[in-house]
């Protein structure tokens, strides 16, 4: 692995671990973590790959930010910090990596959410709220805000993002080039 790739990998893992820590501790993913990571991704990829690297980094950043607008359009499913974390990872790793990381993070987050709801005894109530929100959005054209839940259902989604990114790293590193 080239030194530039190692630097990007270390930066990606660092921003993910710090974000998990702050999301679990404070319930927030801070701009002071995601903004420097995104800028670092732009710089490292430009140094390592020139203008094509900058282009991939900008595309990854844009994809992560587009997720924020999509989440706001559909209904507040992901928090702004989660989307900015995805954008920072996209700036570091590029759009193809980010697409896989988002997909896997959504699956992990769904399983994580079901397990937490089962453990806390609120699965039935949670599923009713989700179906109600979807019904309101589709049939009644009302805003959907799944994020408005009790503290019993609060999930530090950075954990799912970390899992999705680590799985994507593992999967990409295991493939023959």
Summarize the structure.
This protein is an all-alpha fold and 177 residues long.
Overview of the molecule:
With about 180 residues, the protein is mainly alpha-helical. About 80% of the residues lie in helices and about 0% in strands. It is built from 6 helices and no strands. The chain has helices spanning about 5-25, 30-75, 80-95, 95-120, 125-140, 160-175. Helix 1 packs antiparallel against helix 6 (about 160-175). It starts with a helix and ends with a helix.
What global shape is seen? globular
What is the rounded distance between the termini?
11 Å
Q: What count of helical segments does DSSP give? A: 6
Low-confidence stretches: none
Record field, number of beta strands: 0
Radius of gyration from CA coordinates: 17 Å
Structural class comes to mainly alpha
* Percent of residues in helices: over 70%
Query: How much of the polypeptide forms β-strand, as a percent range?
Result: under 5%
Mean pLDDT score = 87
Strand count, sense and closure of the main sheet? Answer: none
What order do the helices and strands follow? HHHHHH
């Amino acid at each position: 692995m080239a030194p530039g790739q190692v630097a990007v990998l270390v930066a990606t893992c660092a921003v993910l671990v710090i974000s998990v820590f702050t999301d679990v501790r404070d319930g927030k993913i801070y701009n002071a973590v995601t903004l420097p990571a995104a800028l670092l991704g732009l710089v490292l990829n430009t140094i390592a790959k020139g203008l094509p690297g900058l282009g991939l980094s900008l595309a990854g950043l844009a994809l992560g930010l587009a997720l924020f607008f999509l989440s706001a359009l559909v209904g507040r499913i992901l928090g702004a910090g989660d989307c900015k974390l995805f954008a920072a990872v996209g700036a570091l790793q590029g759009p193809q990596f980010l697409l896989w990381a988002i997909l896997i993070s959504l699956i992990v987050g769904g399983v994580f959410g079901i397990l937490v709801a089962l453990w806390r005894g609120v699965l039935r109530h949670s599923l009713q709220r989700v179906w109600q929100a979807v019904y309101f959005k589709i049939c009644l054209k009302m805003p959907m805000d799944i994020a408005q839940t009790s503290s019993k259902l609060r999930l530090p989604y950075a954990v799912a993002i970390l899992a999705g990114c680590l799985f994507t790293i593992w999967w990409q590193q295991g493939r023959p080039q």
